[in-house]
């Protein structure tokens, strides 16, 4: 049974403050540990916040002993109604730096509200004085967090972390997505256009294209998810990468398959060729934008490969 905040005694309120400060300090320590390799400046900021929480906890324990003795009741946030349920983001690896910063902001605001409510719940003068001091400390802590961020997250540090964030985004999202889009757009050209030319039927070509696209998506998705677990390469969750690769592979093939829903075969074939040209141009731009490949070089590599596969499918289908 959860306790209502209004039913807590002054002794329990102070014990809750102690456990809350300890929990917050341990969460900040987890954030620092998770971000130290990729975001060292932010990790140092969280380490400073952990030290602040440890100081607050020690002062609270000293105050508790002075007023109530040695035994501190075991009561935590999750035992009291009204507190926000915290998702254990600190257990996630790799941990997003923006996720950690946002959660830290929420934690600071919740702690400040807790002390404000606690002041209103007490009538004893010494306890009110104590909780007022705690509220002041929490407000100072909020200011301290800002000072720590300003101190550690300098322009150069932010630039370095932004570069690291971009690198992780490339490894975990752009690279598997581009791999899937490229494979799906090119590998399905041969069976699709071979079936189209051989059967002269839009519907049969559509069925072959859909089968090739879905099959390639499933195959590429599983292959990428089993390639590595991301623990050494930093490429993130293998299942997320596999899902991105599989979906983009299927999308790359379905794009030039949909025109064959047009009943007129020759018009469908023409539209499909136009779609292929658009797809290859988009892939070339993505490689140029995110992989720092010169656009003409990327376009040459992608378009030449696509044309060769398309011609192979055409000649096989017409033979």
Number of strands: 0
The average pLDDT value, as a whole number, equals: 80
Q: Assembly type of the shown chains?
A: single chain
What is the count of DSSP helices, taking H or I runs of 4+ residues? 10
Uncertain segments are none
The structural class is: mainly alpha
SSE string, helices as H and strands as E = HHHHHHHHHH
| Rg, nearest Å | 29 Å
Q: How many structurally independent domains?
A: 2
Q: Which overall shape is indicated by the principal axes computed on the Cα atoms? A: elongated
How much helix is in the residues?
Answer: over 70%
In angstroms, what separates the terminal alpha carbons?
77 Å
The proportion of strand residues reads under 5%
Query: Strand count, sense and closure of the main sheet?
Result: none
Short description:
The protein has 319 residues and is mainly α. The protein has helices spanning 10-35, 40-68, 97-120, 125-152, 155-187, 189-199, 202-225, 238-255, 265-290, 295-318.
């Amino acid at each position: 049974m959860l306790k209502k905040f209004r039913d807590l005694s002054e002794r329990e309120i102070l014990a809750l403050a102690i456990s809350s400060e300890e929990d917050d300090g341990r969460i900040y320590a987890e954030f620092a540990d998770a971000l130290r390799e990729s975001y060292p400046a932010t990790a140092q900021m969280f380490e400073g916040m952990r030290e602040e929480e440890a100081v607050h906890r020690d002062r609270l324990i000293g105050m508790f002993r002075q007023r109530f003795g040695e035994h501190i009741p075991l009561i935590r946030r999750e035992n009291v109604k009204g507190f926000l349920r915290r998702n254990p983001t600190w257990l996630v690896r790799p941990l997003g730096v923006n996720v950690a910063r946002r959660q830290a902001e929420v934690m600071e605001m919740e702690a400040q509200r807790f002390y404000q409510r606690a002041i209103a719940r007490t009538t004893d003068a010494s306890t009110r004085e104590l909780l007022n001091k705690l509220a002041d400390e929490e407000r100072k802590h909020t200011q301290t967090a800002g000072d720590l961020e300003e101190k550690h997250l300098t322009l150069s540090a932010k630039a370095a972390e932004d570069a690291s964030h971009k690198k992780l985004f490339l490894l975990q999202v752009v690279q598997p997505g581009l791999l899937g889009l490229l494979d799906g757009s090119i590998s399905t050209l041969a069976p699709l256009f071979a079936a189209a030319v051989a059967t002269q039927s839009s519907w049969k070509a559509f069925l072959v294209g859909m089968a090739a696209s879905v099959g390639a998506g499933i195959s590429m998705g599983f292959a990428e998810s089993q390639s590595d677990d991301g623990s050494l390469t930093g490429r993130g969750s293998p299942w997320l990468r596999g899902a991105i690769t599989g979906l983009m592979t299927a999308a790359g093939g379905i794009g030039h398959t949909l025109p064959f829903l047009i009943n007129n075969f020759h018009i469908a074939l023409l539209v499909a060729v136009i779609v292929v040209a658009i797809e290859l141009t988009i892939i070339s731009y993505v490689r140029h934008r995110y992989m720092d490949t010169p656009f003409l070089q990327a376009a040459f590599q992608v378009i030449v490969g696509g044309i060769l596969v398309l011609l192979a499918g055409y000649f096989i289908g017409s033979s």
